[in-house]
Amino acid sequence: MNLKSKVAIVTGGNSGIGMAIVLELARQGASIIIDYLAHPEATDALEKQVLAFGDRVIGVEADVSQVADLQNLFATAVKEFGRVDIMVNNAGIETRTSILDTTEAQYEKVLAINLKSAFFGTQFAAQQMIRQGDGGRIINITSVHEDWPMPGNTAYCLSKGGMRMLTRTAGVELAPHNILVVGVGPGAVTTPINLGTMNDPTLLKKLDSAIPLGRVAMPEEIASLVGFLASEGASYITATTVFADGGIMQGSPGL
């Protein structure tokens, strides 16, 4: 797989799955725009890793829940690199709260960061790709919970379910422009969002036992799938989600 001459934006790109995606796309030769909101030192360190591959890279501080920040993110990408070929809507949070106790502020924050950012990220990416005239890839990092209920995390599931329909609807709408829109649905992954489980041996053992492959995924395993979907090898995949869950959706009655 080779992404030489391609330019990729990765939101939430300086930690967890986002960081792994940045490194995977860089290994394939893409120029990278790393969106981040916190921990600029992590972005600086990641930029050095990307530069070691010989690729171009910039970090852009942007709150993707704000449309103006997203617009600036794209404007910076085009100014610095001239185009955008790959958009990875990766930024996401959760509150681990049920429908009974989720506050309005929690609901709005989760939906804004997870779903609103993906909607307008998709819109701005598609507009730029259409201007360029040669198609592109939009990859939405969703979750098994776009389709699989998770009681006690209702707003998160709602946001991922929205991303599911965004992927399908935008994929159909943008297909005439050769813009492919694909979701990647991870199961449990060793990322900061799951630290509570990773640091609790009892919870981790319970989770591992629910996964047919018997273990939680590494971020690099999700990133390798994103790298494939960004490549020419995935040129006939759109308007769907590819799950990377170790079989958990088939092997467990729910978590």
Task: Describe what you observe in this structure.
- The protein has 255 residues and is of the alpha/beta class.
- The protein has a single domain, classed as Rossmann fold (3-Layer(aba) Sandwich).
- The chain is built from nine helices and seven strands.
- It has helices spanning 16-27, 40-52, 67-81, 104-132, 154-174, 195-198, 201-210, 219-229, 248-251; strands at 7-10, 31-36, 57-61, 86-89, 136-141, 179-186, 240-244.
- The protein has a seven-stranded parallel beta sheet with strand order 3-2-1-4-5-6-7, with helices on both faces.
- Strand 2 (31-36), helix 2 and strand 3 (57-61) form a beta-alpha-beta unit.
- Helix 1 (16-27) crosses helix 8 (219-229).
Question: How many strand units?
Answer: 7
Helix content: 40-55%
> Main sheet: which strands, in order across?
3-2-1-4-5-6-7
Helical element count? 9
Gross morphology: globular
Number of domains: 1
Major sheet attributes = 7 strands, parallel
Measure the end-to-end span. 36 Å
Kindly estimate the percentage of residues that lie in beta strands according to DSSP. Answer: 5-15%
Keywords:
single chain; 255 residues; 7-stranded parallel β-sheet; alpha/beta; Rossmann fold; globular; 9 helices
Summarize the structure.
The chain is 47% helix and 15% strand. It has helices spanning 16-27, 40-52, 67-81, 104-132, 154-174, 195-198, 201-210, 219-229, 248-251; strands at 7-10, 31-36, 57-61, 86-89, 136-141, 179-186, 240-244. The chain has a 7-stranded parallel sheet, sandwiched between helices.
